[in-house]
Amino acid sequence: MSLVALETDGALAVITLDNPPQNRIGERVAAELAAAIETVEAGDSRAVLLRARGPDFSFGGDIVNWPDMSVRQLRATFEQYMAVFSASNDFPRPWLPLSRVSASGEVWSWQFART
After folding, report:
1. Structural domains present in the chain
2. What is the pLDDT of residues 45-89, one digit of tens each?
């Protein structure tokens, strides 16, 4: 089962986080999100709608494993996350966040600033 879905509706690309209830960003979600961004960038969509399934938009990083990670592993994890956020921040088309209930932390601040 995919944790990030990509659909198109005409000129609109719709990326859906599907890791409820909190839609935390882990390595797998970050990798799938990066792949979705690459696919959208290669296509003809004029804007991207970012939404989430479940009661919460995103509670940020999936921190459960972080205490057991070495500094090197944490650094690699953060670099993966930042690469995804940078790719979306540098994206040449607008991002439209759709948040029903809550978003936590600074992890999603990039897309709100772009709308």
Report:
1. 4-109 (3.90.226.10)
2. 999 999 999 888 888 888 888 889 999 999 998 898 888 888 888
Entry pTM: 0.78
Q: Is 113 exposed, middle or buried (0-12, 13-18, 19+ CB in 10 A)?
A: exposed
- Name the token pair of 15: 């990326």
Instruction: Kindly give, in sequence order, each residue whose CB lies less than 8 Å from that of residue 110, ignoring residues fewer than 6 positions away.
Output: 85, 88, 89
DSSP line for 9-68: ETTEEEEEE--TTTT-B-HHHHHHHHHHHHHHHHS--SEEEEEESSS-SB--B--TTGGG
